[in-house]
């Protein structure tokens, strides 16, 4: 309540604090801390929004929540706890998604400043656009482990959140996952796909059976024979893994033998794959050569979560978890499915067991359940102190924004280790101006879309390109000069176009599209360049913000992560991003590249940076992510 | 020093501390669980330290404070309820402090810091002192040095703050990262753990340091006036037996500027003293966050500690470390 006590602040700032209205987006690690600082500083009118509920793993840092609050709305509990610091403050809470169309430009315009305390890039991009449109200053922040970052986004003055290319999320080629895994992460990804094949929302991209179209085997004479064989046996081109499992009543032994014996034997028959690799060793249920004595003394002392399970333990967990998940699955209504959740004991057990059995088969080092959970759940570590410091700087920046002291609002980076001049919190020397080629905040936003117009449908243009990659909410698209409406945000109006290929609706090489998102008040000009895409899991499209520059290679992005401002980003992969409050990008890279490349799927070569490396980077002060 | 006693964490603990164990590891968490912390001075800055340390999962925390809750506490002390004005600050903080983490033993002690015998401080692994006079700080630092207790001091005035550490001879492990080309030409990040030892000077030595010498003055001109402003504020406390108050804003400001002119003219502009009259919440959080992280590092013996003074510049939000008298 500092501002309501005369003499604590100088008069101008005191008045500004008392009069202003602030929106806090997110009531997680940073949000709780920000809310406390705002209330104690004397802000009298605060709104806070978060769609999430409280989990036990939040309680080590989200200090407005206690054990009895687990399962309740973060925004609502945060409001109540903060009111206990000062009951005279007006705090309005929304248990809702900021992406909802209920929060339009008019909503944002009611605030003097917006403070982001988010955990995912999609929401950050969206709030960035809304604040630019509403012309409200936005203070963006994030943490990951010991690292934190704070930046002011003000239209025309500073870079917006999307001015800089951000490293894209890692994906692995389908054939690595299905045929030739070489690292634990490959087996973990496979195990998550298997979960979805058996119990979840099945997705054609997530097939777990051997991939006969592996380019490595493409030139093989025997390929045809193999394909025929597989058809006859039906063990590769099975209609669906789930149908097969259901027909076999989810019998753990049968599933085990199918996945870890028959499929592996089939892979072995694709001999080219094993010319330079160690061939996998099929495992048969019950025939575990490695006796249970493998529990050496070191492992025996460790908890179930921390130790490496031997194959027999894996098989036991495999069977128990399948039986449990099967029962859950059967209880669901027809057509409904389970959703994989790292915090669900059996779903997590299943992935840990399957990944480790597959690792064993392929001679890959095994991982404890604890480690598998980090990788499978994309968990970004988070601590109270980094969040407290970051939120403190957010509110210091808020004071300066209210006083219009923008020259004191440079981005600040928090690191575990001191920089050259013994700095622990390192502010930029100058405010970085907006990127004139930014496809969001420049006066006439434009991009080049390289796409296989013979393969992409209109639906995919909307869902994968405009909504997923370009973060629009309700896009309308017309072909420039022709006035043809390709996509309409009016429900049903262009539904008939959904399955039409781009080329068949006159979207061809050289064509210009005008995309418009009325909700975000955002217009984008898209120049289409056709490119042939060879294989299904190659990039179907890529977005180039500045065609004058080559796209940044992901490898370079990670390789350069040594300077102070480097911030790699790991996005949440599966939307259950309840606690990591991730994000942020590499400032260094950002200043050299003004091109933005957002491939739908980045095909990483085997030489690409491994997940393991990312992990170790994660504890490195050079990397920043955000809470 | 705190040892990892080898006892496994319970399932309840691994669940609660999951996100931090994934950062600093099980061994650090086990060491934290054995640590006994004394925190002297439950102002807003103290409340921030208490919050972070209690959340981290130490064994015990003793809150020592003989003062009563007053209006100024409501600018940053979130552990005391509004209706507790006039009550002892440590006792008034107890309920909310305990609610942060039921697994930590928390006690309130209402005695005066200066009335505590030397042996009292030997019951702890870490001692943190805030809102104290220089004389008490030096006494307690020396008492801690006798028994290898890790000593921290710090304060926040308005938007300025510092922390000081005397870990004496401190051993720690540090992770080094190297890029290495593996056998299959993959570039891998290799992590190695290096053990190191660092020696800290006593507080007395640090206070004897002549900050008016030319090279340090040059440094101050580059880093901003925080060091000088903090010196002036500590001097005010020694001279008047209290901290500057917003109630007597203009009189206290004049007194501060007089001290400034006496000890370091030309090194801190008048404008630097605009916000020094009550602890400002975000700054209490920033400096309290830094100090708490240093306690966690000291207890877990992981990563290089800040040797030995951390300063915060409210204009740029730069946080930097000065190694003084070492």
β-strand amount of chain B: 15-25%
Let me know the average pLDDT of chain B: 95
Largest interface: A-B, 77 and 75 residues
Q: How many beta strands in the DSSP annotation of chain B?
A: 10
Q: Please give the largest β-sheet of chain A.
A: 8 strands, mixed
Proportion in helices of chain A? 25-40%
What is the total number of structural domains of chain B? 3
Counted by DSSP, the helix tally of chain A is: 19
The CATH level-2 architecture of the domain at 2-166 and 382-427 in chain A is identified as 3-Layer(aba) Sandwich
Active site (chain A): 175
Domain Ubiquitin-activating enzyme SCCH (chain A): 312-373
Subcellular location (chain A): Nucleus
Biased composition (Basic and acidic residues) (chain A): 604-618
Detail the topology: elements first, then pairings.
The complex is a heterodimer of chains A (627) and B (326).
Chain A: H1 11-19, E1 21-25, H2 29-41, E2 45-49, H3 74-85, E3 90-94, H4 105-109, E4 113-116, H5 121-134, E5 138-144, E6 147-153, H6 174-178, H7 184-198, H8 223-233, H9 241-247, H10 252-269, H11 297-301, H12 311-331, H13 345-362, H14 369-376, H15 384-402, E7 412-414, E8 423-427, E9 446-451, H16 458-469, E10 475-479, E11 484-487, E12 512-517, E13 522-530, E14 541-544, H17 554-559, H18 587-592, H19 611-618
Parallel strand pairs in A: 1-2, 1-4, 2-3, 4-5, 9-13
Antiparallel strand pairs in A: 5-6, 6-7, 7-8, 9-14, 10-11, 10-12, 12-13
Chain B: H1 11-16, H2 18-34, E1 36-40, H3 44-56, E2 60-64, H4 89-100, E3 105-109, H5 118-121, E4 126-130, H6 134-147, E5 150-157, E6 160-166, E7 169-181, E8 187-199, H7 203-208, H8 214-223, H9 226-240, H10 249-263, H11 281-300, E9 309-313, E10 318-322
Parallel strand pairs in B: 1-2, 1-4, 2-3, 4-5
Antiparallel strand pairs in B: 5-6, 6-9, 7-8, 9-10
């Amino acid at each position: 309540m500092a501002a309501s006590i005369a003499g604590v602040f100088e008069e101008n700032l005191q008045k500004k604090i008392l009069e202003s209205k602030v929106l806090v987006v997110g009531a997680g690690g940073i949000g709780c801390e920000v809310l406390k600082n705002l209330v104690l500083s004397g802000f009298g009118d605060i709104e806070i929004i978060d769609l999430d509920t409280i989990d036990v793993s939040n309680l080590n840092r989200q200090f407005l929540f206690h054990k009895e609050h687990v399962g309740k709305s973060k925004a609502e509990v945060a409001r109540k706890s903060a009111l206990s610091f000062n009951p005279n403050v007006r705090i309005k809470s929304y248990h809702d998604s900021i992406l909802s169309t209920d929060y339009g430009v008019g909503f944002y315009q009611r605030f003097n400043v917006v403070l982001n305390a988010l955990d995912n890039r999609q929401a950050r991009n969206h709030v960035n656009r809304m604040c630019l449109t509403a012309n409200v200053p936005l203070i963006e922040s994030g943490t990951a482990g010991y690292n934190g970052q704070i930046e002011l986004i003000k239209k025309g003055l500073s870079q917006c959140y999307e001015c800089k290319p951000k490293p894209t999320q890692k994906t692995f080629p389908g054939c690595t996952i299905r045929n030739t895994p070489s690292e634990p992460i490959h087996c973990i990804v496979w195990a998550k796909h298997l979960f979805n094949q058996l119990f979840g929302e099945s997705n054609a991209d997530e097939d777990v059976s051997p991939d006969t179209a592996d380019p490595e085997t493409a030139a093989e004479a025997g390929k045809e024979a193999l394909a025929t064989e597989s058809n006859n046996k039906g063990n590769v081109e099975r209609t669906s893994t789930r149908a097969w499992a259901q027909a076999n009543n989810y019998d753990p032994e049968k599933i085990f033998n199918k996945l870890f014996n028959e499929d592996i034997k089939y892979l072995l028959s694709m001999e080219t794959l094993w010319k330079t690799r160690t061939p996998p060793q099929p495992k048969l249920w019950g025939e575990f050569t490695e006796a249970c004595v493998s529990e050496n003394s070191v492992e025996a002392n460790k908890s179930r979560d921390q130790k490496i399970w031997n194959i027999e333990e894996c098989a036991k967990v495999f069977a128990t978890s399948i039986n449990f998940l099967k029962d859950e699955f059967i209880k669901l209504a027809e057509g409904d499915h389970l959703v994989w959740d790292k915090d669900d004991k059996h779903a997590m057990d299943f992935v840990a067991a399957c990944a480790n059995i597959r690792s064993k088969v392929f001679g890959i080092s095994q991982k404890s359940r604890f480690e598998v959970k980090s990788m499978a759940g994309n968990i970004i570590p988070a601590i109270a102190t980094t969040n407290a410091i970051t939120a403190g700087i957010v509110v210091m920046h808020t004071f300066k924004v209210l006083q219009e002291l923008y020259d004191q609002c440079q981005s600040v980076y928090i690191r575990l280790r001191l920089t050259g001049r013994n700095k622990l919190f390192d502010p930029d020397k100058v405010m970085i101006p907006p990127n004139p080629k930014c496809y969001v905040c420049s006066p006439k936003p434009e991009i080049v879309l390289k796409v296989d117009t013979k393969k992409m449908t209109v639906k995919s243009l909307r869902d994968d390109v405009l909504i997923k990659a370009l973060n629009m909410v309700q896009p309308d698209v017309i072909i420039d000069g022709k006035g043809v409406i390709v996509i309409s945000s009016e429900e049903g109006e262009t539904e008939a176009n959904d399955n039409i290929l781009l080329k068949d609706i006159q979207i061809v090489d050289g064509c210009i599209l005008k995309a418009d998102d009325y909700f975000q008040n955002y217009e984008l000009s898209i120049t289409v360049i056709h490119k042939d895409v060879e294989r299904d899991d190659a990039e179907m499209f890529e977005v180039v913000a500045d065609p004058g520059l080559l796209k940044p290679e992901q490898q370079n992005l990670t390789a350069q992560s040594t300077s102070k401002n480097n911030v790699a980003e790991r996005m949440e992969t599966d939307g259950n991003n309840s606690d990591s409050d991730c994000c942020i990008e590499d400032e260094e890279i950002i200043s050299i590249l003004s091109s933005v490349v957002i491939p739908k799927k980045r095909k990483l070569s085997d030489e690409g940076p491994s997940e393991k490396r990312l992990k170790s980077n994660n504890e490195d002060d050079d990397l920043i992510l955000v809470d | 020093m705190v040892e990892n006693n080898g006892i496994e964490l319970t399932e309840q603990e691994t669940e609660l501390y999951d996100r931090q164990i994934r950062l600093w590891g099980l061994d650090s968490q086990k060491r934290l669980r054995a640590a006994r912390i004394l925190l002297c001075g439950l102002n807003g800055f103290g409340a921030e330290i208490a919050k972070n340390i209690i959340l981290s999962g130490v064994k015990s925390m003793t809150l020592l404070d003989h003062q009563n809750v007053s209006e100024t506490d409501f600018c940053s002390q979130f552990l005391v309820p509004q209706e507790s004005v006039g009550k002892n600050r440590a006792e008034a903080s107890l309920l909310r402090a305990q609610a942060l983490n039921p697994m930590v033993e928390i006690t309130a002690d209402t005695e005066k810091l200066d009335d505590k015998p030397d042996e009292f401080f030997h019951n702890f692994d870490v001692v943190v002192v805030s809102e104290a006079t220089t004389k008490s700080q030096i006494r307690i630092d020396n008492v801690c040095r006798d028994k290898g207790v890790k000593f921290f001091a710090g304060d926040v005035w308005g938007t300025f703050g510092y922390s000081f550490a005397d870990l004496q001879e401190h051993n720690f492990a540090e992770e080094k990262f190297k890029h290495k080309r593996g056998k299959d030409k993959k570039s891998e990040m290799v992590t190695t753990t290096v053990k190191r030892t660092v020696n800290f000077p006593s507080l007395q030595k640090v206070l004897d340091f002549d900050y008016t010498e030319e090279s340090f003055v040059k440094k101050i001109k580059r880093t901003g006036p925080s060091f000088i402003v903090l010196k002036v504020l500590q001097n005010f406390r020694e001279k008047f037996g209290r901290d500057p108050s917003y109630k007597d804003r203009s009189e206290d400001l004049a007194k501060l500027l007089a001290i400034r002119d006496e000890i370091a003219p030309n090194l801190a502009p008048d404008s630097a003293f605009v916000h020094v009259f009550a602890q400002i919440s975000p700054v209490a959080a920033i400096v309290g966050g830094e100090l708490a992280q240093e306690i966690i590092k000291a207890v877990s013996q992981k990563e290089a500690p800040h040797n030995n003074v951390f300063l915060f510049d409210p204009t740029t939000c730069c946080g930097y470390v000065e190694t003084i008298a070492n």
